[in-house]
Specification:
GMP Synthetase, Chain A, domain 3; alpha/beta; about 575 residues; 13-stranded mixed β-sheet; about 20% strand; globular; 17 helices; about 35% helix; Rossmann fold
């Protein structure tokens, strides 16, 4: 039986209110001070590759204060915008928090962008200094002559841990209002140019704790920072969530299945956050191993999975870990307490099968503009087809719903952004003066305030008869086909038709499947068409795919594995 969760897990903050902070929520530095006071000797930041290195909270705070003091000594503090761009690492995390201790604004930038793209965001964010990993350090420093640059790798002269203020320099963290800007996060730009989302300390800290009303975490947990930490999802749901409760964060540097499984096993990860693509691949590997046991064993295990899922859903008891302990151990998932999927829609079948195997698996929803979490499935009362229950202190309405109750998701709450940096017109388009944010996503709410996501307004396909089709819903139907690596669904206007769209798919086959089976192009095309026909049988008449493009090269993706729809060509 799942443990009862504290309805207000932030109540412990009351003991520090008036002593460390005075508002409803602390700033991020104040929160880190509180956690260090509570859990000074517990592991804070850890990395296992190439060697295991770990810092406890006391050690981490000492380094953070030293770096913040150095920044202050060279005139970087309130009013400064300082970029952090690099691979996931304890050094990245220290730099991020040190910037905030100095009273400055942190600007996390995607390290997988080109040097030119990074420098463009440095300019767009009015960045005055930067922490940079070794591969791009020299080029950025040369390209932005005069801008102070610091290193995130031990081999570098200006390595972050080595930064020290002049002897005798007196430093105390400046008093920063909780409503002041903490971070500027650039959106990934899946449908257009990146925008600088301004998030306050209040935005981030409130979202961190309000999410915990739907998520039971503690200092005993070990989080895995695998997805790029500059992204709002990992930054809040792993990085900030973990240190808010005194948990440990283990940093993963490579999204390679073999390395991931090694990290999960060695670090005994309990909280594993990922995107649908990653969870699909892991589940596919598990089920492949089960199939290799033979038809009889496979049938028996699938029957046991169905029984396990029924018991868990009906009685709140999780027998899967007993039934499938050896399978979970082999998959390096035996220590996992909770898996959380975000960053895109997940096939309900994937959701169901993880829970059947004994892994508490939930999904959530949000966007960078909401810090990002606004809904999350509670483990004790999850709904497989929902992206979660609306968080406390959060208002959500469905604007202009159709006959099925589907309309634009509009939200208001303490996690909603301050606006887009130096983009007042773009801000006004989505954020009302009284704090309501138009998400650009469409969905519906049930009677218990659970959200069901349909897709993006910008992606909607209008078919004959005025029917709206959301491509994301169709794409979800293909998630469990190992033969397909990528699929993008969109509308097109057939010759001879003026307005109404039909539906086409761009499909990039799984190259491992092709090579392992030594398939010809004709065989690949035949199987892909068979899969599309199979899915079409499950779709409504106006949703069926009528044209297929089989791609020879993969579609462009963001670093969080979302397809860049606007750049797709065929």
């Amino acid at each position: 039986m799942s443990a009862m969760r504290e309805t207000e897990p932030w109540k412990f903050l009351d003991a520090y209110r008036g002593r460390i902070f005075t508002s409803k929520w602390p700033t991020i530095p104040q929160l880190f001070d509180i956690t260090t006071d509570r859990f000074a000797d517990r592991a804070c930041f850890t990395i296992y590759s190439p060697d295991r290195v770990s810092l406890n909270y006391r050690e981490t705070r000492e380094i953070i204060l030293r770096v913040a003091s150095y920044l202050a000594s060279i005139g970087l503090g309130p009013g400064s915008h300082i970029a952090v761009t690099g691979k996931n690492s304890p050094e990245w995390a220290v730099a991020y928090i040190a910037v905030l201790y100095a009273g400055a604004v942190v600007v996390p930038i995607d390290y997988q962008l080109s040097t030119q793209e990074i420098m463009a965001l440095i300019d767009a964010g009015d960045v005055t200094a930067a922490f940079i990993d070794e591969e791009k350090y020299d080029d950025i420093k040369k390209g932005r002559a005069g801008m102070p640059c610091f290193g995130l790798a031990r081999s570098m002269e200006t390595f972050v841990y080595d930064l020290e203020p002049p002897q005798g320099f007196a430093f105390s963290p400046p008093q920063v209002e909780v409503q002041s800007t903490a971070a500027i996060l650039f959106t990934s730009g899946t449908t257009g140019d990146p925008k600088g989302v301004m998030l306050s300390h209040e935005n981030l800290v409130s979202d961190c704790f309000l999410a915990q009303a739907n998520l039971n975490i503690s200092e005993q947990d070990i989080f895995y920072a695998l997805l790029p930490i500059h992204h709002s999802y990992t930054m809040l749901a792993v990085f900030i969530e973990s240190f808010s409760v005194g948990a440990e964060t283990v940093f993963g540097k490579r999204m390679v299945v073999k390395q991931i499984l090694s990290d999960l096993k060695e670090a005994k990860i309990t909280m594993f956050l990922g995107v649908p693509m990653l969870f699909n691949k892991l589940l596919s590997g598990i089920l492949k191993g089960v199939r290799e046991k033979g038809a009889l064993a496979y049938g028996l295990i699938r029957t046991l999975m169905a029984i396990s899922g029924f018991i868990k859903k009906t009685f709140g008891v999780n027998p899967g870990r007993t039934f499938f302990g050896s399978i979970l151990e082999k998959a390096s998932l035996s220590s996992i307490r909770i898996c959380i999927s975000g960053g895109g829609p997940l096939d309900p079948k994937v959701f169901r099968q993880y829970n059947q195997l004994g892994v508490d698996f939930v999904q959530g929803y949000g966007l960078t503009e909401t810090s990002p979490i606004i809904t999350l499935n509670p483990v004790e009362h999850y709904k497989e087809t929902s992206v979660g229950k609306v968080l406390p202190e959060t208002e959500m309405i469905i604007d202009n719903p159709n006959e099925d109750g589907i309309g634009e998701i509009v939200v208001r709450g303490p996690m909603v952004m301050q606006g887009y940096y130096k983009m007042p017109e773009e801000t006004a388009e989505v954020l009302s003066p009284d704090g309501w944010l138009r998400t650009g996503d469409v969905g519906k709410l049930d009677d218990e305030n659970y959200l069901y996501l349909a897709g993006r307004i910008k992606n909607v396909i209008v078919t004959e008869g005025g029917k709206n089709v959301y491509p994301e819903e169709i794409e979800n139907e293909f998630q469990l086909f190992d033969e397909i690596d990528q699929i993008l669904v969109r509308g097109y206007i057939p010759e001879g038709k003026a307005v109404a769209e039909e539906i086409e798919s761009l499909i990039y086959p799984n190259q491992d499947w092709v090579s392992q089976n030594n398939l010809s192009q004709e065989q690949v095309e035949t199987r892909i068409h068979d899969i599309v026909n199979q899915v079409n049988q499950r779709l409504r008449s106006y949703e069926k795919i009528t044209r297929i493009h089989i791609l020879k090269a993969p579609l462009e993706m963001t670093t969080t594995k979302k397809l860049k729809r606007h750049s797709a060509k065929e």
